[in-house]
Sequence to fold (347 residues):
Amino acid sequence: MFKPMNLRALSDLLQLSQTTVSRALNGFPEVSEETRARVRAAADLHGYRPSAAARRLATGQSGTLGLVFPRERNMLGDLIFTEFLGCCIEQASDLGYDITLAMARGEQTEEAVYRRAVRSARVDAMILSSPLIADQRLDLLRSLKMPFILHGRTRSPAPYATLDIDNRGAFLQATRLLCDLGHRSIALINGDPTYNYAADRESGYREALMMLGLTPPPALIAGGMMIERHGEEEAARMLRLAGRERPTAFLCSSIAQAMGVMRVAKGMGLVIGKDISLIAHDDRIADIRAEGFDPPLTATQSSIGAAGKRVVELLIRQLRNPGEALPTEVWPVDLVVRASTGPVPAP
Fold:
């Protein structure tokens, strides 16, 4: 009768210790590339996948990464987050890891969820998403001796592992493009200003205007959820402004917000790219991309999915090489000019 391959049988077949086989399959650096390749080839040939129990016994790790939702946000309804999460899960699986999700509910605090995860020893490290400008999670996880990586950055003076995009530079570029086209009344429809990415984007926007000696009026800056309704409500409000405050161009933090702006412009008989210029940040979510709109949107763009995969790679590398310096990557952002931007219209 056929018996499934287990760690002992695979070790005997290869004439290696069970510890060596387990560490080879889990990518530990002390195993040579030649041995790792031989072990993986044999595991693939015989259909062997290490169990969580075997992994824990051999490495002292569960093979699971954790991600906690903020209590006030159901992030599974956020297309940007679900794209990020899906790519995290895909990459973790390719590297032999799982991802577990948790959410603080009711009176339970987010801190309590993290503490429970550490006590249970069910996760080896945490992925932190959507960091605040001042984010207490970093100090908490340091105190609990739980490895983590931040998708984004915060203003913490202590070093931490991070992968981010250059949000400030992206919105500086985008605003300068609009300024070069003659626009001076430029609206920013941003994310929640308590999040660091939104603060960085506003910083880049303000810096570009300051180069021309301009200070944007408060009425042209709005922060909130990166959804279509927010873009629609703010565009409707801003386009009712009188005189020079009325914007001739919009800069949005998401494609969804830009869709709201486009809806309002169409309802007012305004032509995007002629009467109103529009730039959005494009996270390269499948089927919702800037080039697919009419007109195609000028966009700052960077793949949220690629970021999810890289975050997992960096975090697992931390676990396998605990003595290495904490990884810090900041990706440049492309500005792709399309038909939604044009010269400022004549008065």
User: Anything to note?
Assistant: DSSP finds twelve helices and twelve strands in the chain. The domain at 167-303 is CATH 3.40.50.2300 (Rossmann fold). The longest strand covers residues 64-69.
